[in-house]
Design goal:
2 domains, Universal_stress_UspA, UspA, Universal stress protein UspA, alpha/beta
Length: 282
């Protein structure tokens, strides 16, 4: 059974991401954990009131949040009548990232699935501040980011973008392989390079990656980098039938910078495709 953690701010975007996850893993036995953090509300309220009233306010926030989480649970059960799936709810006063990281360890979390932005994010940005924070802070589980209110369509083609600059491990690729196998999707390895010939180290890593992905029969696509790496990938996505993009999050790669600076206008294709971020395994 897979354990999938679903952060929610009770927005339509969050529910859409939740629904997408139930469809993506429809054939898999799963426990979905719906979680909401009211830490920011506690901070805002307790800074303005008598400290003696803090406990009563936290209790009230727990009750309110638990009720809302239960409403989400009942709605998803009505919308997705799937005997493979079960649901738990959690209300927490911890920061969202801390609560999720604890859950990943406690519940052996397999995936964290969330919307690309919440109810307060500006329309023209690609990702909201909470999602950007989660990319940087979530540890030991892949993060699947679902674009704003994206309708589910079967995942048949997954692009795995990489530079072959580091060795890979079976463990860090496993979440990608699991989604590919479950949905009978092919994996297209997209490599952006400044020249056609790879270095000796890249060739070694290339062979290792394709050996690890052998069961999924991966395809290789070389994109020549004539400027920004993500410009090349964005163009590729605009011309190919891709249903999901995946990358490994290394300490110094450009994922966070891309999403922080990007707008829907300048990389529109990213706004239409789920993004699977795999944690690096040392």
């Amino acid at each position: 059974m897979k354990t999938i953690i679903i952060p929610t701010d009770f927005s339509k975007n969050a529910y859409s991401a939740f629904f997408y996850a139930t469809q993506l893993f429809a054939a898999e036995k799963c426990k979905f954990i719906i979680i909401h953090s009211f830490e920011s509300q506690v901070t805002n309220l307790t800074s303005r009131i008598d400290i003696g009233k803090t406990e009563a306010i936290v209790t009230e926030l727990y009750d309110t949040t638990e009720t809302k989480c239960e409403e989400i649970k009942h709605k998803i059960i009505l919308d997705c009548d799937n005997k493979n799936h079960s649901y738990d709810t959690i209300a927490t006063s911890l920061t969202l990232s801390s609560a999720i990281n604890k859950l990943i360890v406690k519940e052996s979390g397999d995936y964290v699935v969330m919307g690309s932005k919440g109810s307060t994010a500006a329309r023209d940005i690609l990702m909201g501040s909470n999602t950007l924070s989660m990319i940087q802070k979530i540890k030991n589980a892949p993060l699947l980011i679902i674009p704003q209110e994206l309708d589910f369509t079967p995942v048949k083609h997954i692009a795995f973008a990489t530079g072959f600059k580091r060795a890979y491990s079976k463990k860090e690729l496993q979440p990608l392989v699991a989604i590919s196998s479950l949905n009978n999707a092919d994996i297209k390895v997209v490599h952006v390079n400044e020249r056609e010939n790879m270095s000796e180290a890249q060739q070694t890593n290339f062979k290792q990656l394709f050996k690890l992905l052998k069961s999924e029969k991966p395809e290789n696509t070389l994109l020549l980098d004539e400027g920004e790496t993500f410009d090349a990938i964005s163009y590729y996505l605009s011309t190919e039938d891709i249903d999901m993009v995946s990358m490994i999050l290394y300490k110094h790669n450009a994922i966070v910078r891309l999403f922080r600076e990007a707008t829907i206008k300048n990389i529109a294709r990213y706004a239409e495709i789920p993004f699977l971020i795999l944690p690096k395994v040392d």
